[in-house]
Amino acid sequence: KGDVSNVVFESPADKENRQNYYFSADFERLTSNTWNKIPALRNFKGRVVMDAERGHIQLDSDRSFVHLPEIFASPIQFEKLRGKVLWSTSDRGLRVASDELIAENLDVKSRSQFKLDWAPDAVPYLTLKSSFSDGIIDQYYPYVPVKALKPPLLNWLKKSLHKGTLDSGNLVYQGYVNEFPFDRHNGIFDVQLNVRDVELDFHPLWPKLEGIDANLRFVGRGLSAQIHRAHTQGMELLPARVGITTLDRNAILKLDGGLLGSTDQLIRYLSAMPVRNQAGTRTGRLVSIGGAIVLC
């Protein structure tokens, strides 16, 4: 439903060529329900121009939302949605693309370009590039493709990243949509984020890191980070590199950096960590002797 104006429809008079039509119209307050993997829309405004083989929509919407239940758990709301989306059909299938799509809301601002190729009886192939700014870390979960991720990873994401600000970032996605997150290295999923004052609760047995200023990078199921500043249990984390090969319940964190604190603080921190040595057994008890830390 919605309001439609300035409608133009042209079609040849002879029946043989009636498929060669032309249609254009302005629309506002356009609303539709989810149908057969087509997303639900609300309060869309813009202009559509199309014929039998191609067309485009020029979006100029405020306070609208999109719900893609095949990908996201809940609707995504936009304060501003601008851009031109084009499509074309041929014997090779459907192509949908945009050179620039601007989306902004209270959580984040983004600019994207994408191309979706959907051949008959095949899985869609998506190429997507996005840039982000002015983001709120606490509000990231609605933008996670929950339908494509396994429950352990979703649970980890829910519990691990808190607070903080996203200054800038970018995303690159390339591959068949059913192959995400590309465990067989048959696609690209690469997200790079520059964040401030983030809280990372990596593991229930591991002391959390707070006040993190870092460059984060998610590639496939893995996470790497260059941490410029952070603190934990009253100690300062010196510039460090962090790596997690696979974000799941068996995740192993590799930390290359240093902590600045008293001997007692370091002992409490190291004793709390689920650290294992090269033989695969947990490290023993740590005690302080003078200014040194001794493994018993």
In short:
With 296 residues, the protein is mainly beta.
Order of helices and strands: EEEEEEEEHEEEEEEEEEHEE
Question: Total strand count, please?
Answer: 19
N- to C-terminal separation?
72 Å
Q: Please, how many helices?
A: 2
CA gyration radius, whole angstroms: 25 Å
How much helical structure, as a percent, in the residues? Answer: under 10%
Q: Which structural class should the secondary elements be placed in? A: mainly beta
The low-confidence runs, each spanning 5 or more residues with pLDDT under 50, are 277-296
Q: What fraction of the residues are assigned to beta strands by DSSP?
A: over 45%
What overall geometry do the principal axes of the alpha carbons give? elongated
Integer average pLDDT: 84
Sheet of most strands: 17 strands, antiparallel
Question: How are the SSEs ordered, and which strands pair?
Answer:
Blueprint: E1 3-10, E2 22-32, E3 40-51, E4 54-67, E5 76-90, E6 93-104, E7 109-118, E8 125-136, H1 151-160, E9 161-162, E10 165-176, E11 188-200, E12 209-219, E13 222-232, E14 235-237, E15 240-244, E16 253-256, E17 259-260, H2 263-272, E18 286-289, E19 292-295
Antiparallel strand pairs: 1-2, 2-3, 3-4, 4-5, 5-6, 6-7, 7-8, 8-10, 9-11, 10-11, 11-12, 12-13, 13-14, 13-15, 14-17, 15-16, 18-19
Task: Report what the structure shows.
This protein is mainly beta and 296 residues long. 7% of the residues lie in helices and 56% in strands. The chain has a 17-stranded antiparallel sheet that branches. A hairpin with an 8-residue loop joins strand 11 and strand 12 (209-219). The protein is elongated, with a radius of gyration of 25 Å. The protein starts with a strand and ends with a strand. 12% of the residues are buried. Residues 277-296 have low confidence and may be disordered.
